[in-house]
Automatic annotation (TrEMBL):
Biological processes annotated in GO: carbon fixation
Record protein name field: Propionyl-CoA carboxylase beta chain
GO molecular function per UniProt: acetyl-CoA carboxylase activity; propionyl-CoA carboxylase activity; transferase activity
Residue ranges of every copy of the CoA carboxyltransferase C-terminal domain listed in the record: 266-501
Amino acid sequence: MSQLEKVKELIELREKARLGGGQKRIDGQHAKGKYTARERIAILLDEGSFEEFDMFVEHRCTNFGMEKTKFLGDGVVTGCGTIGGRLVYIFAQDFTVIGGSLSETLAMKICKVMDMAMKVGAPCIGINDSGGARIQEGVNALAGYAEIFQRNILSSGVIPQISGIFGPCAGGAVYSPALTDFNIMTEGTSYMFLTGPKVVKTVTGEDVTQEELGGASVHTTKSGVAHFSVENEDDGLALIRNLMSFLPSNNKEEAPRVECTDPIARMDDLLNEIIPDNPNKAYDMYEVIGAVIDNGEFLEVHSAYAKNIIIGFARFNGQSVGIVANQPKYMAGVLDINASRKAARFVRFCDAFNIPLVTLVDVPGFLPGTGQEYGGVIVHGAKLLYAYGEATVPKVTVTLRKSYGGSHIVMSCKQLRGDINYAWPTAEIAVMGADGAVEVLYAKEIAADPDPVKQAEAAAAKKEEYNKLFCNPYNAARYGYIDDVIEPRNTRFRVIRALEQLRTKNQVNPAKKHDNLPL
Ligand code: HXC
């Protein structure tokens, strides 16, 4: 062969590899409303930035006549490229090749990009669309999964890991996304479950569809396994790009700072009137968040799960922050098992990746009842407490209204190393609300008077006394638990100034092998 012929052969081989499982299967993928692995990568990465690895890898299995079913690159496309000019590593499972099923060599390809990502400190993004372990490869496929999981574990907290679930993800395969930081699922075309509907039927007798068992809506509303549900793959890929803009490339860096076009000292008069006079009335925390962050741009995480707490990324003066806020409009903003788990994981993510935390507090307490206690709310609530207490990133807390009892402590209070703790004049920082306190302290005394009118008057008088003494920010401010009581409309400026003050914060926890977070 001449050199020119060899170059021609290379070009032909590449073309063949780019066809994956062939045009018919590509058409099949499109017919299901899905992109191919290569199309997904092209949409996700900056144009022309993709550098592919291992295009010529083929599986080595000879069981069940597999030596006749070989495809260049096997069932995954891997490599690196850039998003917004920043390096990322990527693997996208190719369903057109043997259903994207995981072979020994396919796992090896994925592990190679995961190792490269760790070596250079760049995020790793995985697009899942696979029938799971390649059945013909037996234990070699299982070993391949374990190799991937091990890398997920070691990468956790070192580089951001993001999973797009754009097709099937079943059996033990679900554990790789579960070990990553963010899962994005497409509505109607993706599903995740440990055992499929047929096994469910056999074992429990339950009739359930794939969608009901593990579709995007299940995992974003009921289980919390997925953080985002998107209408289609274009939205999912755009979301990954947006998400990346808030994150650093690794745990030694800070998130990129963007130019801020929103005036730093912008005041919003709405905030001076947003808290209703009636303490039992709700208002919408999204309005507060929108009013204080840069340009109202909020990337909410887990928006459909545990809506009593809001988490997500925003910017203050161009700096990426994680927002955690109670939502009085949903279950009065009470903390429960799901809200605690949701917020705790987010706080730990932000802390691992040097993203400051801004916490907006309006919390009446923990949700009481057997359902919560039997479900272990003590341990789950402790997760959030633990997450805030161990976090060493800058922590700015603003208490808007209620901040009672244990939930006051959990929501980034001063003693959990809150750096700057502000309160609005409407804040009520106390052991409990006036109704509960008067009931505990004076129920017998009040009941001793047989006249119901006098009973009501006595109760009202005691509540007023309690409110005056405790249901305000000044009692806590008197002890230095609140650093300043601020005018609500000035919150944006005060948070920005606090974050600026904390830019050089340097706090280190005691050395240990690892912690023992209450799981
Ligand atoms: C080998 C597989 C495969 C697999 C799919 N294919 N999954 N080959 N091993 N796991 C092949 C199919 O045989 C088919 O090949 C091609 O991929 C496309 O699959 P279809 O079934 O035609 O596609 P579709 O109708 O869209 O159905 C997709 C599917 C189904 C629902 C994912 O393929 C399926 O149920 N697959 C098996 C799922 C499964 O049980 N996996 C093992 C899970 S256990 P041909 O040549 O016929 O077109 C597991 C353990 C991991 O993964 C443990 C880790 C710790």
